[in-house]
Design brief:
Order of helices and strands of chain A: EEEHEHEHHHEHEHEEHEHEEHEH
Structural class of chain B: mainly alpha
Shape of chain B: globular
Low-confidence stretches of chain A: 302-306
Radius of gyration of chain A: 23 Å
CATH topology of the largest domain in chain A: Rossmann fold
Number of domains of chain B: 1
Helix content of chain A: 25-40%
Number of strands of chain A: 13
CATH class of the largest domain in chain A: Alpha Beta
Radius of gyration of chain B: 19 Å
Distance between the termini of chain A: 34 Å
Distance between the termini of chain B: 32 Å
Mean pLDDT of chain B: 86
Order of helices and strands of chain B: HHHHHHHHHH
Number of strands of chain B: 0
Mean pLDDT of chain A: 87
Number of helices of chain B: 10
Largest interface: A-B, 35 and 28 residues
Low-confidence stretches of chain B: none
Number of domains of chain A: 2
Strand order of the largest sheet of chain A: 5-6-7-3-8-9
Oligomer: heterodimer
Strand content of chain A: 25-35%
CATH architecture of the largest domain in chain A: 3-Layer(aba) Sandwich
Number of helices of chain A: 11
Shape of chain A: elongated
């Protein structure tokens, strides 16, 4: 059953169309990613789901509710982490959680939540004195304090160090295990690939692809690469005539074989058959980055990175 | 599962007021205006006044019947029109209101908490200023004390309503302070805050009397003298509250 429904969503500011005919459904218990560079319309899309913006056209439902007209109901079941959105400087961590907990009919155990997000030591620290990562973890805690059925997390791990990032990913998986549906907005490929069941790639306000991470990579036709070195040059035609191989290229003294299927095995066998000794052989699988590049014609990293 | 709409209960409202109170107490610099300024204005106005009763003020000295009410109105005007909107504008600017907008708490809860906490500070400032006036200048208490309390509360809500309007239309924190100050000084000047309305041209003095500041001073002065406040003055205050409050509610942006 779809708990989030977006159908033909359109939103423009002045003359600029920022979300153009976006449609997707998110199923109960799913971790769904919206991936795209800045300015792709990700945040506007989720703001329409959160009831912060009214769509110019299209149909948006969260647990069957109209986010704008039925916001009083929606607020009880939707947890939101905003990309911007702050607390008063002098407010302390535990006070903030206790205050936010008081808004909800049913809510999480605050001390447990502090523990889960490794904020227990910082519970009496003022918001202004938190590091970027701590403030980010508090933002996540605030999104979860009302025991939401759906959590929308915008740029979840921006500003976190690798360890905190890994911890946060594990936490999101735990939250999902309790039946919470998670909508994740990100421009961070590794995060989307690691967490999401399905991903919608947004580019210039449109959904350019929607599938599982594996499905996106496959659909993009992104190929594996086998890299190796040889002590002497050889005729690359021996590899090029293999069915699995699409291209053989020399790069910085290395041979790179592009292709599909069981590429590593067939290449190794063929090299051995011709008595060519290969060293430093390794295989590179296609990633979501390759898929993103294929769908948008641009590398995400060219825009920005985390 | 049935989803029910639920707004936070009384406990949550109390918690919001308590939280705002703690934040105010931690911001020591922010306490100077509501607590220190009233005493300062009282001293400035009290020095150089003599204690002679005059018939025009029902036998009370001008200090008691006019200067003290003027000072109290000045103080609540500064807090309501300049001080409070600057906090609200900062909350909007830093996204505090936006974050609350995606919780079941209506951001109105923040506004109410702000006004309650601000009022508590203002009343503390007022009591300190009155005690000082009593001790240093032997100022008498209002003859109609209940009336004075009622009129003061009415002036307060009128000033806070104006403050809400300032917060509603100001795009940034700095502009909230600027608009608030301009409005405050305009009301103050026309209301007789700079040497009395008598010093103004007749037309301006009349206008000033029926603006919230002048009307507030007149009504509060009446309670000191123990006479009934002019209904028109009270009407101006009530009208200001309704008009500015309704406009603020219409124009207020949470983000």
């Amino acid at each position: 059953m779809a708990v989030l429904e977006v159908d033909g969503l359109r939103k423009q500011y002045d003359d600029t169309v920022v979300v153009d005919d976006v449609s997707f459904d998110v199923a109960q218990g799913e971790i769904f990613g919206i991936l795209g560079p800045n300015g792709a319309g990700k945040t506007t899309t989720v703001e329409c789901l959160e009831g912060l913006r009214v769509p110019d056209a299209g149909h948006v439902r969260v647990l069957g509710l109209d986010p704008h007209r039925e916001r009083a109901k929606l607020r009880q079941v939707l947890g939101v982490q905003l990309q911007k959105g702050m607390l008063p400087e002098k407010l302390r961590v535990r006070e903030a959680l206790a205050l936010y907990r008081s808004f909800y009919r049913d809510g999480a155990d605050i001390d447990r939540l502090l523990d889960d997000l490794r904020l227990t030591e910082k519970r009496n620290t003022a918001f202004e004195d938190l590091s970027g990562g701590q403030a980010q973890r508090l933002a996540i805690a605030l999104a979860l304090v009302g025991k939401p059925r759906i959590a929308i997390l915008d740029e979840l791990t921006t500003g976190l160090d690798p360890r905190a990032r890994e911890d946060t990913w594990e936490l999101i998986e735990q939250i999902r295990a309790t039946g919470v549906t998670v909508l994740l907005v990100t421009h961070f490929m590794a995060e989307a690939q690691r967490l999401c069941d399905r991903i919608a790639i947004l580019d210039r306000g449109k959904v350019v692809a929607l599938d599982t991470p594996g499905g996106l990579i496959a659909a993009a036709g992104a190929q594996q690469r086998v890299r190796f070195r040889t002590s002497e040059s050889f005729d690359t035609a021996v590899l090029e005539r293999l069915g699995e191989v699409s291209e053989v290229r020399a790069e910085r003294g290395e041979m790179v074989v592009f292709g599909t299927g069981d590429l590593l095995r067939v290449v190794s066998t063929e090299l051995a058959n011709h008595g060519i000794a290969a060293t430093e052989t390794r295989v590179e699988h296609a990633t979501l980055d390759d898929a993103f590049l294929a769908f948008t014609g641009r590398a995400m990293d060219a825009h920005e990175n985390v | 599962m049935q989803i029910e709409a639920a707004r936070p209960g009384l406990r949550s409202w109390a918690m919001m007021v308590g939280t705002e109170g703690k934040l105010v107490a931690r911001d020591t610099a922010g306490l100077i205006v509501p607590l220190g300024l009233p005493m300062l204005i009282m001293v400035m106005n009290g020095l150089g006044a003599d204690g002679e009763g005059v018939p025009a003020f029902n036998g009370l000295p001008p200090l008691d019947a006019y200067v003290v009410p003027l000072t109290l109105v000045m103080m609540i005007a500064v807090i309501g029109v300049v001080n409070m909107p600057s906090f609200l504008a900062a909350y909007r600017k830093t996204g505090v209101l936006r974050r609350l907008a995606v919780t079941p708490a209506h951001p109105i809860q923040v506004l109410v908490a702000q006004v309650v906490v601000s009022m508590i500070q203002a009343i503390c400032g007022l009591i300190m200023a009155l005690v000082l006036a009593r001790a240093a200048f032997d100022v008498s208490m209002p003859r109609n004390i209940l009336g004075a309390i009622g009129v003061f509360l009415l002036i307060s809500v009128a000033m806070y309503a104006l403050g809400m309007l300032v917060a509603a239309i100001a795009p940034t924190t700095n502009s909230a302070v600027a608009i608030g100050l301009v409005l405050f000084f305009a009301l103050l000047a026309l209301g007789g805050g700079f040497g009395g309305r008598d010093a103004l041209p007749d037309a301006l003095a009349t206008v000033g009397e029926y603006l919230p500041y002048g009307a507030g001073v007149e009504a509060l002065s009446a309670t000191w003298m123990g006479v009934a406040p002019d209904a028109l003055h009270l009407g101006v205050l009530a009208g200001t509250t309704l008009l500015a409050g309704a406009l603020a509610a219409k124009l207020f942006r949470w983000t």
